[in-house]
Write a structure and sequence with these properties.
By secondary structure, the protein is α+β, with helices and mostly antiparallel strands. It is 13% helix and 29% strand. It contains one helix and four strands, in the order αββββ. The chain is globular and about 30 Å long.
Amino acid sequence: MRIISKERLHHLREKYPVGSRVELLRMDDIQAPVIGTKGTVIGVDDIGSIMVSWDTGSSLSVVFGEDLCRRIDDDK
């Protein structure tokens, strides 16, 4: 597990506020949604994982430093 600085955690919480939409780019988990799956951010926890309610019904978090997603509500 990677340690996240307070500054980086603050930045993640600003970049991924509750309700923002994201698209999954990379997740190394057997139960991961398919790459490209979209979801809604429900929070960022204290270790920097982005908690997502995926449109598929899954709720796996995007793990800081390992998985990758991008905000898509800025694409409008």
